[in-house]
Design brief:
Distance between the termini: 59 Å
Number of strands: 4
Helix content: 25-40%
Low-confidence stretches: none
Strand content: 25-35%
Strand order of the largest sheet: 2-3-1-4
Largest sheet: 4 strands, antiparallel
Number of helices: 3
Shape: rod-shaped
Number of domains: 2
CATH topology of the largest domain: Alpha-Beta Plaits
Structural class: alpha+beta
Radius of gyration: 30 Å
């Protein structure tokens, strides 16, 4: 059909396609020129079990003590027994969680044992 259109109509079609070509060019160039964003470090959550040296059922005080000793926010999960309690630590990054776990393990007067779930997860905000 393009062969049947007079030569004067072809430049009009080219002018109509020009805005689409301009948008495609600008978007391609902006994608190339955008600086590479550094990946944001997401908070990490570590689930753990603590065994208390003095059995307790007070969830709030257990979570508060774990937070105080670990130096990071702790949330209470569940009671396994009067001595064993499941909690989770929320840290800025994996190395902060490792340091928090070390602090808990060194507090032998309060915590007899610290058992990890085995994996560090991205925290859900």
């Amino acid at each position: 059909m393009a062969l049947l259109v007079s030569r004067g109509a072809r430049p009009v079609r080219a002018l109509l396609a020009l805005p689409f070509a301009a948008v495609a060019t600008v978007s391609a160039l902006s994608a190339c020129a955008a600086p590479a964003a550094a990946p944001a470090r997401a908070p990490v959550e570590v689930r753990l079990m603590v065994k208390l040296t003095q059995p307790s059922e007070d969830r709030a005080s257990i979570a508060a003590e774990v937070s105080r000793v670990a130096g990071v926010p702790a949330s209470y999960g569940s009671t396994v027994s009067a001595s064993w309690h499941a909690l989770s630590l929320r840290c800025a990054d994996p190395s902060a969680c490792d340091a928090a776990i070390d602090r808990l393990r060194k507090a032998r007067a309060t915590f007899e044992a610290i058992e990890l779930e085995g994996r560090k997860r991205g925290a859900v905000m």
